[in-house]
Fold each of these.
Amino acid sequence: MISKEELLESDFLDQFKTGEELDRFLKSVFNRGMEQILKGEMDHHLGYIKNDKKGDLSGNSRNGYSNKKLNSEFGEIDINVPRDRNGTFEPQIIPKRKKNRPGIETLIISLYAKGMTVSDIEQQLIEIYDINISTTAISTITDRVKQDAIEWQNRPLEEVYPIVWMDAIVFKVRDNSRVVNKAIYIAVGLNTSGYKEVLGLWLGKTESSSFWMSVLTDLQARGVKDILITCTDNLNGFTSTINSVFPESRTQICVVHQIRNSCRFVSYKDRKAFTADMREIYTAPNQEAGLHALDRFEEKWGERYQYAIDSWRENWTELTVFFEFPLEIRKIIYTTNLIENLNGKIRKYTKNKMSFPTDDAVKKSVYLAIIEVTKKWTMPIRKWGIVYGQFIAIFGDRMKR
């Protein structure tokens, strides 16, 4: 069936004097097209075309039409839906008990995922498509993704993930007539084909290592047997939590987080020189050279900013795991920028919602935002062939499992 866009791009527009005439024509084309498709569905259902003698002994036949009002991208349209005498005909293109064409439902869900409120969507549909759908109906449509979200959250996972990034993002949620902060925990895995995938989202209180334990246990229950490298922020107790569930996993604390924390109280006049000297630590060729750079860094800045040096030394083991790997893997794991970029896009899609009325509402919005963002995750990471070979060489049978 010809689309609205194809019609608008064709040369026939000149014959219409007003936009209203064009709209009426488009609606009539859509109406005829839908009714023809429904008749075709009925032919297939009965097993014979109209007036065919095969129908005499079929045990079922056509039984007129019922009228249905359909919300479409061309506005509200009256459609004649064929009926059969046995009442067994189930149209696919316009399911029973539904007023909205599937394309409209997809549009509503997509607009909601991009951060529009239900009232904004209602207004948008009226202004652009001349479709009047109540906010209650829009909420009902978006609520249908709940089952999809449950299935997605509980889907089986691969046995081995070379890398998993973990982080949390905080939202304001109404809880017992109060608005409180709650954290959405997110894990992104790099699978053995080199593709990124969001492994799940979990709602809890403010980020804590104890809740991350339940997240990791859930991953394990869904089939994950091994994670080679985990990338996290420097949350207290996070590394020991990971190792209690995946004891062989190597945990890399985000170096970028460490840099930010180190610069937090550095005066503006010192910051440029301070960050340049600190760069010598994490760009060193190996851990020994990095430790030597840290010693020099302390000699120069220790008197004024000892807290920064102490932080590097306290977290040195987890901060420098990336030194154990080739340069291609180092670039992937030394920072959690990948998951922070995902969180930033989730924030962009949910920024219009100052707070969420329920836990389900925030989970639904974040799930839809994730689905929108990950539509573009269609390619493996750069140089995956080289990186895959390096993982095989380093981890051997663990990678091949």
Amino acid sequence: MYLEHFGLQDQPFRLTPDSRFLYLSEAHAQAKAYMEYTIWNRDSFVIITGEIGSGKTTLIQKVLEELDQDVVVAKIHQTQLAEVQFLQALLAEFGVEAYNARKVQLLKMLNRYLEEQNRGGRRVVLVVDEAQNLSPRVLEEIRLLSGLETDREASLNVILCGQPELARTLDTEGMEQLAQRVRLRFHLEALVENEMQDYIDHRLHMAGLALDRKIFPAKLMAKIYQYTNGIPRLINTLCDTALTCAFVEELDDVTAEALDAAIKELRWGTFAERARSRKKRSSSDRAAPPPPGQIAKLVLSEDKEVMGEYLLHKESMTIGRNPDNDICIDDSVVSSYHARILTHRDSSYVYDLNSTNGTFVNSRPIKKNRLLKHGDVITITKYQIEYTVYDSTEESTTGDGTVVGDANGNTGQRKMWADTIDTRTLSS
């Protein structure tokens, strides 16, 4: 729309990742160096985190484009996967189709592949984008894979990139072994204010603008920073809109008035105002948090007969037919990995994992996810799973989260269930 007007050959502020436009700020350059270290130093595991829109995916693209041919890379960006699905996806990245294989077979095939690459003198690197969505069980699988060795060297190096939730997951109880395996951890900060001008000019020059010309004058940088907080994706959105506004007014450069028009067009408050608004909306949308001493559990039943009770004792729990689910329902009408329950702080959400027969909450199908409230009933084919918030001082559990008794001594039936389903495999 405005390219010819400003003497550009390409869109300078596109939102899709494009490594040609990568601006290596001090933070981005350091993160890139960490990734390259991981690739060239065998026996390495690095974690890169950053806020949404900070440029993680673009940085990954740049690193991968510069690799030599003797480096074999598996890049996984779909991370809502169970362990078997993750191993299948990893082998598919290496060109090995194993969609019907079981876990033991998958591990054997992966070991064989890694040994072949090692004998050929090739390095193998696993890069996982959006790694904050990985379940603790998949993270543990990755830890075990990173420890595979041939000739006293690791046969698989790992780079995990994700939002800050990934770092918080690593710091939780139960993740100590993975945290100790990690050689380097780096958080990719947003641009600082004095990098704004260089970032904007870099993208414009890469798009064809003459090197001796500036479209965004220095006096606008403070306001651009005020509304973007230095996050590259937000800078791109604001600058693209500002160029459009300047073009409509037939201006040669972006003026303060054009920038104000862009902010009005986007309906943005300052970054700080938007952050406060998001926090307020999140608090109002979230189900009322249970009072101190209360936690949530799932009660599984069929035809009103209770089959088991499970505490939401970890961040991610899966439901499905395969035995490695947290709640296993051994019934052919249930998908292998049917649904996932994600719990963060005081809220739990149910996600359908592209199941064949769908997941319902209170008899209504869910498309992506649904916030759960006390008393909600999840329906998976003929099974009902009630989400209940209760007083944790009244009941105790086994280590796997199955309820076994309460403060009033009512342990009989529940203890029987703990004995019969300690493997959490339920027969239809």
